[in-house]
Amino acid sequence: MTDTPGPSQLFDQWRKQFEEGAQTWSRLITQTAAASPSPTPDPSAFWRPVLDQGVQTWAQLFAQTPASPELVTQWKQFLDQWIEAWSKVLGQAMGTEQFAKLMGQSLDQMLVTAAPAKKVVDQQIEQTLQALNLPSRSQLIGIAKQLVELEDRIDRLEDSITKLRRLAEREPK
Amino acid sequence: MAQERFADVVERFTGGFAADVPAETIKQWQEELERGFRRLRNLHGLVTNPVEPKTGQTPRVEIYKRNKSRLYRYESARTHRTPVLFVPNLGISRPYIFDLLPGGSFIEHMTRQGFDFYLLDWGVFGPEDNDLSVDECVTKILPRMARRVLETSETDELSVLGYCMGAPISASFVASHPEVQVKNFVNMAGPIDFAKVGLFGLWLDKENFNVDRFVDTLGSVPADMVRAGFKLLKPTMDLSTNLNLWWNMWNDKYLEGFQALNKWANEYVAFPGEFFRQWVRDFYQDNKLYRGELVMGGRPICLERITCPVFVVGAKEDYIAPPECVRALIDKVGSREKEYIELPGGHISLIAGRGAAVHCWPKVSAWLGPRS
Description:
- The complex is a heterodimer.
- Chain A is mostly helical.
- Helix content of chain A is about 80%, strand content about 0%.
- Chain A has helices spanning about 5-35, 45-60, 70-95, 95-130, 135-170.
- The model of chain A is unreliable at about 1-5 (pLDDT under 50).
- Chain B is of the alpha/beta class.
- Chain B is built from 15 helices and 16 strands.
- An 8-stranded mixed beta sheet of chain B has the order 1-2-7-3-8-9-15-16, with helices on both faces. A two-stranded antiparallel ribbon of chain B has the order 4-11. A two-stranded antiparallel ribbon of chain B has the order 5-6.
- Chain B starts with 5 loop residues before the first helix and ends with a helix.
- The mean pLDDT of chain B is about 90.
């Protein structure tokens, strides 16, 4: 066992591999950017063999304990449960009368503050557009409303014509 | 100097005691690693080259339009005589969720089952539509749409299928327009008894929410405010959505569905001001539909007057329209033939997604089929 490296040596080896990998990756990106147009670099291409080796060995290590990819699934389940628990807590808090009141009051406050400010801004924009001889938003909305009304009238006329046609069809000739 | 293999170092470090690891565990880790690589690859594609999902691919024809609203007829090998008019929610979101992707579309399912299927798309409203009310939707738009359905399908009666707020709106129409012959009525996740409507009911209560001040100040309910309301309803939704996205990102099929659904989920639609005022006051605050106190266009709305066969579908985990407020329609209608089912899923997953294709769509088409 005298030849077996200690954890610090292992860590050094690992760090070396990562540093070399980062340098290669950086070179790959620079080259790809320089030789444009070229296919998008595959971020996993360089790390794949390194990680393949590492994971294979670590998998052997974990086999001595209950560690397996199920750990990842369990971690995901834990996160799901954690989010669900928070969701329930927040749901309970927001389902209270106090929260609803507070939210209503905040909204009211916002509207009370916003209403006069909005009015002033709208008036100023209207005046500016008028001075520039440009149509304002309210004028465009007015025209759009007239179009909607016209369309409605045409619809009503069409309905009346259809009714009259049906009556005419029923009457004996 | 030759680079020492990482595996050799680890093996030396562990003294070679792990040589007899089951091959199955190694295989599992390799699979997990492979998924990790696919996740990275797909994330890279998602960030650098996002693809616009092609939604709403079932062939259709626009047969009528009124202002922003459109009536679409979908191509089908029609085997059922009675056409189906599908009435979804007005505002909030776009209706392409019902025809999301080929193989994952409620509309495609219904057309394949031989239904002459019509979709009422209420449209995206602008400030010029702020005077549009629920009243107008029930007494003007819906009757016209129903007439067009009858004309183009060359029949005397139709089935009406309401989803979400489209259900109480279409129920109001069916209850107040006996001259339009409705053969069947289906309510999917549509609230009827607003006393049991959950968080929205509490937040929009008269004591907590001044709808008049809201509409008088803003004119309409902007899309951003609609988004804020729905995000607040389930604040952890984005977190779990993103976690699930990462978890399933290796799966190309999942990613395709996610992109389409995500596009829809982030496309909120504003409410016209007067519509929102009437919707909140008459439905949420005064519960007039359930109490039978609603009058629209001079016509009283009594749910008891609905006498056609009625099918009601609630979703167990629906926090927008909890099952108890949906089920209430069964107690109110005057129909002899009425049925309620409660399916797994939430408000959206009831009608869209893999679960819906298994649990919901076949049940709706199986109920409607023999009656059409």
